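Appendix C reproduces, verbatim, an entry submitted by the partner laboratory led by Prof. M.T., so that reviewers can inspect both the input and the predicted structure.
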Amino acid sequence: MNLYGELLNSPQLRFNYSSPAARDAWNRRGLARFGPYDSTLFPKDRVEAVVLYPTGSKREHDLLINGLTVGEGNFGGFQQLFKIPIHFIDHISFGTEQDLGSHLDHIASLPHPPDIVFALLQRRESDTYVSCKSRLLANGIPSQMILVNKLNDPRGRQYVLENLALASYAKVGGTPWTIAAPSPDEEVVLGVSRARDASMRYYVGYVVLFTRDGDFLFVSSKAPVVEWDDYVKGLSGMVESAIRQFEEERGAPSSIVVHFHKNPGRREIEAITQGLQNAAQDMPFAIVHLNEFSNFRLFDVRQSSYIPPAGLKVNLSQTEALLLLDGLRNGRRRRMGVPRVLDIRLDSRSTMAYDEFPRLVQQVNDLAHVNWRGFNAAAVPITISYSRLIARMLVEIGINAWNEIVSEGRLRHKAWFL
């Protein structure tokens, strides 16, 4: 059996909504040159923040504030990257869990709540983390948790700070960069997924919407359910509702692409298909399966490590291909071990023409370059990585907090889960 492949190019990134020429292949350099994609659209003239910190962590508090406002090393601070100042309107120290609770209540009751809360914590696996994250999100306030020890290492501090700045800008509703899409078509990309809560009792389905160029639009979810049948029944309506919401905000899309990365059952795919047919009518759509746990592996015998370059695509058939995202970049790779490949397959229920499949694979490759969680975030399509983060958040904060976030809807246009 002969298999044929090709090396997909990394996309150009776009950094200014009003200037198609504001492009760069590197996210840091592009931000430094042009500023963020939505700099002319951002609705505020500054980002207002509150910082919470343990009583004994004043030094780390100062490192955080100075790092974000003034900068450190090659990182010139929040304003230098995003062309908008960050202003800390309050600095609150806490000694006990009870102290923290009263401070959170105070922040939530402010006439003009902050755009984001930074919380310095001793460790992630703690009641303090869960309390802080869930109570702020339930009140429509994004938060950024920072472990104290991350700021104590001077060698990596500048990278920690710039990644905090990047994620924070996205959490308050900003768009750092997008893909320089080859055409202006209004194609919408849906990442459809599901998760279980910590007790493994509840099912939660959710849809994350993106434009074709990777701009995050919103996350939509339904209330958790206990029975699998109830989840499947609600899935069709959730997909249809998400597309309707897109139409209300942006107009009718030209086409729809759905990425499903869990191992879907027959009824799940049928429900997604029904939702697409109800909402899209004659609009072409593609259901694309992204399997992260393929049995295939790719090797390059020309390399001493046997690891091929990132972007290697191998065609298995007219509607199935392997894509290596975690490969060598400029001859180097940060991780150890054999990289997994992404097995991409176009579902037979799709109405999009088969000759669109190569473009859909390129789109998956492109969407691995729009992860705003960090400048060196793992090369995973955002339809997968954002779904993972939402699932992890659900487990961490619990069903009750999730219900409050979903019912309020104040965070739906912000990437609060980063």
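The mean pLDDT is 88. Additional entries are available on request from the coordinating office.
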